[in-house]
Amino acid sequence: QVQLVESGGGLAQAGDSLRLSCAASGRTFRSSAMGWFRQAPGKEREFVAAIRWSGGTTYYADFVKGRFTISRDNAKNTVYLQMDSLKPEDTAVYYCAARVGPDYGGTYYYAASIYRYWGQGTQVTVSS
Predict the structure, then answer these.
(1) Are β-strands 18-24 and 4-7 bridged in parallel, bridged antiparallel, or unpaired?
(2) Which of 117, 123, 118 is CA-nearest to residue 100?
(3) φ, ψ for residue 18, nearest 5 deg
């Protein structure tokens, strides 16, 4: 089975930076793309960023462009989300997800339904 474990969340002040990590367990982990989603209390889960393992093409939600950067380390089976210039509205539980299947492009990666595996989430809280 594929298991994803997020880490790096915590408390931050507006303007600070945090880096989230998502590590896949086992040596047999294989996916076509990885995504980051977030969910604030009482709100729907929303897309943040995604990256293709092959080629490293990245995709971002409009509200994080220029502030967040998604990256990957194939050797470590790990995906990162570098978050800069944090805002209070970034407060949410952040989830890592793995896509297993055909590799499409564009807004296809925005849909949570295309990801097979999910981590337990890591809390990010940003104060003003």
Answers:
(1) antiparallel
(2) 117
(3) -140, 150
Task: Please state, in angstroms and rounded to a whole number, the distance separating the CA atoms of residues 8 and 119.
Answer: 13
Sheet containing strand 78-83, edge to edge, reads 4-7, 18-24, 78-83, 68-73
| Digit-coded pLDDT (tens) for 41-98 | 999 999 999 999 888 899 999 999 899 999 999 889 899 999 999 999 999 999 999 9
The answer, yes or no, to whether residue 27 has pLDDT greater than 60, is: no
Dihedral angle over CA of 54, 9, 39, 55, nearest 10:
-10
Q: How far apart are CA 31 and CA 48, in angstroms?
A: 18
Other Cβ atoms within 10 Å of 32 Cβ, number = 16
